[in-house]
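The freezer alarm interrupted the setup, so I double-checked each line after restarting. Inputs confirmed:
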Amino acid sequence: MGNHFLKNFEGFSKLNYKDRLKRLQELGYLSKKDLEYLYLGSISNNLKERIELTQCFIENALGYFPLPLGLATNFIINKKAYILPMAVEETSIIAAASKTARWVCKEGTIKTQTLNTLSIGQIQIPKVKNYKKLKTDLKKNFRDWKEKINKSVLSYMKKRGGGLKDYELRLLKRPDGESMAILHLHIETCSAMGANIINQTCEYLKKPLEKASGEKAGLCILSNLADKRIVRAEVRLKNQDRKLIKKIEEASLFAEIDPYRACTNNKGVLNGIDALMIATGNDWRAVSAGLHAYSAQKGAYSSLTKWRAKGSELYGEMTGPFMLGTVGGVTDLHPTARLSLKILGYPKATELAGLACALGLVQNLGALKALVTVGVIEGHMRLHIKNLVLKAGAKTNKEQKALEKELIKILKKTKRITLSQANQIFKKLKQKN
Ligand code: MEV
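Predicted 3D structure, all chains:
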């Protein structure tokens, strides 16, 4: 299956724009209508509808800020072939993800696993008067509250197998010597991200909780540190160059023990994850915040990923919270998000979370491989040259090709290239012609 899948996308990045879209149509990922939609700029071509949509998303709307939408190819995850839509402005992220996925597809495996699926809603009791009594009151009333909530606020979720499941009470010491109690509600939101419904559930319980306990409640809000909604991804590569994979292990250790490196490492992981979240209309800030907080849970900020070399085998893993959805909110409203979900085969939230985690891990492997071999500059700059060519003012195809050729020569020779060099060379090329 791997080779056949890879063949479908061979030379995909070299195709021109229209042929690339046509290939996706031929492969059954896109319809003729989807192609027209993408040609026209990825938002409704009906002016009224376009304006209505912006007003519905945000306030004081002025228009859109379109990000480029691309596709990472070559992913086989849990033995299933995927192409992953990514909305991102940074050069070389999609190329690196596709190239690394191709390597893994040919020589290894990617597996993901959903460890649990519950979201957390928090109700704060800022200054708890009697924690012991609060605990007893909760024990006494929770079953009743759960039933009421699952029949009202969460009835829709309950019908789909979700709803309020459980709770946890936590006690925290305040800096002024008093104590704060936090009630966590564990809620299954199925394929919805669930932010609004979780917040509504917490608000709903505030009054009954205050009445039963005599305590005064404070904030009612979900937690983005969704550590009961955890996904795990692992990559295994066999028969690898031992020196290379040992270097990848060393790079991993660097990020595991040094927060300065961990932050950059995790930024690279999020290059992939955020791009997939944006493409599918998800709240990427929620996922990013969750992953950063999770990576600091052992007491110090650390790497989200871990790589180990054993003989000629490389093993990598990543575990983290993914508070995302594939139904509701922007995922339903934004036509490009719908299109991205269509390309993915309309996954459930757990499946999308697995894809995001796998993409982050593969993106990280690509970055580490580049860093321990040629460095990231060469690959990045080669692709970035296209930006420089445009910035230097090359307009015609002939001008662009000629300038690109000269810049590639300089990059190969000096390993660096700047906009002022591009400007100078373009000036000279113009004088020559
Ligand atoms: C750049 O966008 C991401 C990297 O810095 C990630 C990393 O250093 O691991 C290349």
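Quick read of the result. The pocket of (R)-mevalonate is lined by residues 90, 264-265, 267-268, 271, 367, 371, 376 (CB under 6 Å).
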